[in-house]
Known about the structure:
This protein is of the alpha+beta class. It has helices at 58-61, 64-78, 110-120, 126-144, 182-187, 189-193, 206-210, 216-232, 243-252, 267-276, 288-298, 304-314, 316-323, and strands at 26-30, 34-42, 48-56, 88-94, 97-103, 107-109, 166-169, 174-176.
Amino acid sequence: MAPPQSPHPVGVxxxxxxxxxxxxxxxxDAGGMARVSLARRRSPSGALEVVAIKEMHAHLAxxxxxxxxxxxxxxITRRIHHRNVVRVLDVLEERARLRIVMEYVHGVSLSQLxxxxxARGERMPRRHVTAILCGVLDGLHAAHEARGERGEELGVxxxxxxxxxxxxxxxxxxxxxxFGIARAAMRDAPATRTGALRGTPYYVSPxxxxxxxxxxxxxxxxxxxLLWEMLSGRKLSRExxxxxxxxxxxxxxxxxxxxxYVRDLEEALEKVLWRAMETRGEDRxxxxxxxxxxxxxALPPSTPAELGAWVEALAAPDLARRAx
Length: 324
């Protein structure tokens, strides 16, 4: 996992002894629930590997509900086996410490890519757009289809598909991260119906606003929001006066047409976009796999080699600091 850009210098700590022990982690970023660090450990095979560690803040680790949510994130993610979802390698509990050890992805988040492009006054090449979003959708489909130990459907819905939660590696593979609020959709129906834990501001679906049923089509709407922003090179949050206006536009299905900013947009691509963002969930694609196929047919995606080389060139300063 590649955490968001941090003002702290990034380095790799000294080796740690033992097959599974972690070197002293170097903090990269901190959010409301946890902090993310970079560390090095010895794998079960004895090889040294760089990993990302998500550790719950100490004050939250003392709260039963918060601990349950954190464990659920690890449990859910470990049930999803797909190249487009960041892998959970281990879960560590030591007294009041809760840590999730994840694969490290040498790459940057979609939000970092967007900032780099905005600074240059450029838009993302459209074949890279489809490559990234097809990868996100393929990862979502794997999550939606995930099953438990007895083969039962888990009914996972991510509900927080945002630019910050999409990593694009220099290997040209987009990966989903952070299933921290997926638990409510899977196990806590009352919280879902009342609209609790609705996700990130400006990245919500109509049903999340009104407390409607949360299904896999919710994630497809959020993928549509990502597609709108990647195609237009703009953030929807900056196209409205405030969050209240954004909610009205989402609820009424009157978001700004992407052709306002991209006049040469392929018609087939535009059709995929607006179907994904239909106000009613039943009018959207039936599955993430169906949307991915439609997107690839509308505009063939770039290859992983092409996408990876582009990411490496665009994000070179960020990657250099982390690799120092």
